[in-house]
Amino acid sequence: MIRFIFRRTGSLILLLVAVSFITFTLFQLGPADPASAACGQECTPERIAEARVALGMDHPFLIQYIDYMRGLVSPRMIGAPGAESICQWPCLGKSFQTNENVSDIIARSLPYTLSMAVGALVLWTVSGVGLGLLAALRKGSATDKFIVGAASVGVSLPIPVTGLFLLLVFVNQLHLLPFTTNEINSPFGPQGPGAWVLNYFLPWVALAVLFSAAYIRVTRTNMIETFSEDFIRTARAKGLAPRTVTFKHGVRAGITPVVTMLGMDIGLLLGGAVLTEQIFSVPGLGFTAVRAAISGDLPVTMAITMLAAFFVIVANVVVDLAYAAIDPRVRLQ
Amino acid sequence: MTQLQPSPGGQPATRTAHQAAGTAAFLDVRNLSVKFPTDDGLVSAVNGMDFSLERGQTLGIVGESGSGKSVTSQALMGLLKGTSARVTGQALFQGKDLVTLPESGMRQLRGRNIGMIFQDPLSALHPFFTVGHQIAEAYLVHNKASKKQARAAAVDMLGRVGIPSPEQRYDEYPHHFSGGMRQRAMIAMALICEPELLIADEPTTALDVTVQAQILDLMSELQQETNSALILITHDLGVVAEVCDSVLVMYGGQCVESGPVDEIFYDTQHPYTLGLLKSMPTLSSSSGRLNPIPGQPPSLLDLPKGCIFSARCEYAALAGDGVCAGQRPELVVEDGHGKRCHLSGPQIVTIRNTR
Question: What is the ipTM of this complex?
Fold first, then answer.
């Protein structure tokens, strides 16, 4: 098990290097010119050249990349010769737009994204797996048909539609919930966990409607398949109670595809739920990344891309570990 | 295995004796039918099965795939309860009707009074739990015991079914076991509560031939130890000859011939059974080709009006014009030997002798 974790950590680092290199290259190939964006309204070729030096873009591509990667392991100096400033470890560079440390921008945005992700995750996992299991147990019944129908509707509703609809009904018309504010980004803040839940409830529902629909379908399909397995028949033949057959023997075997999905979705969501953050004006990672990409702010875009990749990869490692915990056959390899 | 040597001392089925005496058999199945509603119509998987069984006896149920063998066993186990299957008729087990018994009552019997061994032990064992845990679980459902006692019972049982160093094997998973060892573990699981009735659904089909004999010996041995009744479902006539006391031949969800094992093999009364016996490969046959029964089993969606086997029966003409195709024969039992055929005894003897 420990060797397994070590091996996966090794491949994690390799993957991150690859992702960073690809992002860096893509950015260089792209049409954005951060220097002209940074030098402002009255731009002269000289000032653009100055800006290029200040942003470190006068160096060859590979040198820029190596400099950037160095910042991940130690502090480094950034800026034109004579006007350098220190960038503390972990140095993700400084924003081309605001000259702020990128690590500070990330640290500011991450709690919003975490707040969104955690609640949505709990909501959709519980509802998706629960309803999927119920539909599988009542296969062919009216309950099953209703759940499957609702899931088909849910999966085809785009986030902007659900989000705006929820805002219109619950905030604008019924005044049941407050409009999402940026002042709350943690259940441990001065406003307390209740305010946190109320603040993020609508974005959670908007995300959960979309995700749980997919989870219902995957859970239902897999559980129906599992319930027809021979080992379920064996469990019944032993005289076990239906509850034990369903949950101990059935769910444990049928849940693995859901675990895979969950891992990937958590990874993706931690990288920023772009649309949902836009609609509810939550300044999380997705919101920040979109703005940075539009303005050609390479360090911020890089950092969020890498962070998203990091989350996805880590989530995959966690999924693999969870697999090994659930299925003893995986431990063999 | 492939030799057709019936086990010595086979007792004839005692149904008629019980009927005469008016006493209840240990297991008495009457007119058992199972139908499955499907989108294409009603599938009649089992159509009016009758048989009975005493403790210490082994009944072999033989038939090709889709003849209703497994469905019969699942109906007896109550495993069809809660599905769309329609089970009718009667199956009296120690006075309780397994057909009408509610699921909760059936659960008490499963594992404790009726044990079941399945065909493929790899898929029948749960891949995520240790073999020992799965056996101990079967013990814990029906016995008030601590986990420690259950473990001890399971280890003991693993030893009894011939698994070496059972204490270590207890903590291993099914995928660590070989095919034969898995089936031994399956048997241990089925027998841990010492059920009076054991149903083995093709227990040796998924195993290689050398292991088959070991598993059969083991089942016979344990059966004698506990004096339990055994229903052995198989399509292997060699297996039947080796371990069964009486045989029931199924075709199209019906019993076409039943009786003591010697009589089925040496005084065969039904053309289908004759065909089955003829289709078995023998070492002495010179042609080197197998002799299959031509044709396909009938569709269970739409059973023929007459004898279910008539379409494939090469002797149907002997019974007279259109009799076999037009009229369903009854199961006629004489001296414990039942057959469902329009042909008379002498006609069958002639067929046997000219074959």
Answer: 0.83
